[in-house]
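Need a sequence for this fold. Nothing fancy.
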């Protein structure tokens, strides 16, 4: 008997956390950050208190109360007594690992809280992107996916607080990532160096790394299969787990209309050949009839940018490397340069360690790096900007030749505009995710204020109609979703043909119940914290 417990991703997009158990051993399928649930209680300046360790995310229902699963250094005295009466409370004896599908935080974000000796299984690209994101991102508790500084209890004199977490006095730890899709011997010395180094230089207080290196698949008692699939971030995969009830397939996020749809197609064929007992399938876009393709995005954006006479700002997730390539091509076609941020250049440099066909910032005439106005650049940024010295542009360079650039900004970079001084008639292209992004919620009202203030025209930006943000029909087609549409998802389900289908990562799971009626596939709708036995 195999048990699946759904701790996240139920009737919500993102936050996937599924525990698969057989006897006394278990595996987690993703361990993501629950954006929507988090937003019910928190906002920019109101966050879980890092000094309270696990208390806040547990008390607010963001993390399941599973004793034995989390980092010891985050467990305050008496913590578990408080949650013993919670209906979801359990002590977990043995977790063999966490199967990570891709490096979007709604799937990976809460790895930060997991015990360091729980190995993370992923593709090499996912592991490297996760590390690049952590190296170049914010340094909060919820960003510690690949490595972390254990906190220690301290009682400064004159301070009555029971638990006070200070800066670390113990060495930082790297998590054990088990790379499933590559032979590690084939990794270049530069790739190994990237994985092993860099992060402790961020603050002087961090010390040397202890614990694990990249390791080949080992120590997991389950027979696993890793299937690369196409999604809006490179390196995405689906997983297969062999259980005594048969194969369980977990889709992660996927699409069939992207540039690498052949990967998803191959996954369908190989998963179907296993005659799986169960398929846990995403359903983000079940209600959508069709999706724009990346080529349509290229054509629509080219049309809009071709007419622009001044600065163009394009807003998309740089981790969507397909989209970055689309805009790089448009930059070539329109005689402009694509200006990316240092963290985006760092991501491309990291990707090249594994996929040499990724554009080389140093060599590509149409790529430059926009050095933003920050007070204290980190070491990773200083090193990168030194290496790409001839490719750096500043606000004044862009400001003085506005028709020569496409600037890759997201909403959170918009505060650079006072330095750039965009000329009236500049254009803001919104080529990002759906209004509820997988990694942030954009405050469109505030974004509009910024654009209005600088006299910038927008294209593809959602407007509020009856309380809902929608892109006007005539401005659609600037984004190819990372998620398959309803008809494609039904095709995935019917062709893999599991005995049981369990929807996840969806606000409209009932779609599968209706549409698969009579197909021979039984749909089981999970509940939060509920168990599905298969
Ligand atoms: Zn995703």
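Here you go.
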């Amino acid at each position: 008997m195999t048990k699946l417990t759904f701790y996240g991703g139920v009737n919500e997009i993102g936050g996937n956390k599924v525990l698969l158990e057989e006897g006394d051993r278990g595996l987690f399928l993703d361990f993501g950050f629950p954006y929507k649930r988090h937003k019910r209680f928190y906002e920019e300046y109101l966050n879980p208190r890092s000094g309270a360790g696990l208390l806040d995310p547990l008390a607010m229902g963001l993390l399941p109360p599973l004793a034995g699963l989390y980092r010891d250094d985050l467990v305050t005295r008496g913590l578990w007594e408080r949650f013993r009466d919670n209906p979801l409370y359990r002590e977990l004896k043995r977790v063999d690992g966490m199967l990570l599908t891709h490096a979007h935080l709604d799937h990976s974000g809460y790895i930060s809280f997991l015990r360091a000796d729980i190995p993370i299984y992923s593709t090499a690209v996912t592991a490297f992107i996760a590390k690049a994101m952590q190296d170049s991102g914010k340094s909060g508790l919820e960003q510690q996916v690949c490595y972390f500084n254990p906190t220690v209890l301290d009682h400064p004199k004159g301070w009555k607080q029971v638990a006070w977490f200070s800066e670390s006095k113990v060495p930082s730890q790297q998590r054990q990532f088990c790379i499933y899709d590559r032979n590690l011997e084939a990794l270049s010395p530069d790739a190994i160096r990237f994985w092993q180094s860099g992060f402790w230089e961020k603050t002087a207080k961090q010390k040397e790394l202890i614990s694990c290196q990249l390791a080949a698949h080992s120590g997991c008692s389950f027979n696993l299969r890793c299937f690369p699939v196409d999604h809006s971030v490179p390196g995405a995969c689906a997983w297969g787990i062999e259980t005594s009830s048969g194969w369980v397939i977990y889709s992660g996020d996927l699409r069939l209309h992207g540039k690498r749809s052949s990967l998803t197609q191959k996954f369908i064929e190989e998963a179907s050949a296993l005659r799986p007992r169960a398929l846990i399938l995403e359903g983000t876009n079940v209600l959508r009839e069709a999706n724009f393709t990346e080529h349509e995005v290229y054509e629509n954006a080219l049309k809009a940018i071709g007419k622009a006479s001044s600065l163009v700002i394009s807003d998309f997730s740089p981790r969507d490397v397909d989209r970055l390539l689309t805009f790089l091509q448009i930059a070539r076609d329109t005689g402009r340069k694509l200006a990316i941020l240092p963290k985006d250049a760092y991501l491309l440099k990291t990707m090249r360690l594994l996929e040499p066909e990724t554009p080389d910032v140093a060599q590509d005439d149409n790529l430059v790096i926009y050095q933003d106005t920050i007070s204290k650049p980190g070491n990773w940024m200083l090193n990168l900007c030194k290496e790409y010295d001839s490719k750096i542009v500043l606000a004044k360079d862009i400001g003085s030749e506005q028709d020569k650039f496409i600037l890759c900004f997201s909403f959170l970079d918009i505060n650079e505009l006072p330095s750039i001084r965009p000329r009236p008639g500049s254009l803001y292209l919104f080529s990002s995710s759906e209004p509820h992004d997988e990694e942030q919620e954009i405050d469109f009202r505030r974004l509009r204020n910024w654009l209005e203030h600088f006299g910038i025209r927008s294209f593809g930006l959602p407007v509020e109609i009856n309380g809902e943000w929608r892109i006007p029909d005539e401005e659609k087609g600037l984004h190819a979703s990372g998620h398959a549409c309803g008809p494609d998802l039904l095709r995935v389900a019917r062709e893999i043909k599991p005995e049981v289908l369990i929807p996840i990562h969806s606000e409209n799971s009932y779609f599968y119940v209706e549409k698969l009626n009579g197909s021979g596939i039984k749909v089981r709708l999970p509940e939060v914290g509920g168990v599905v036995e298969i």
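For context: The radius of gyration is 23 Å.
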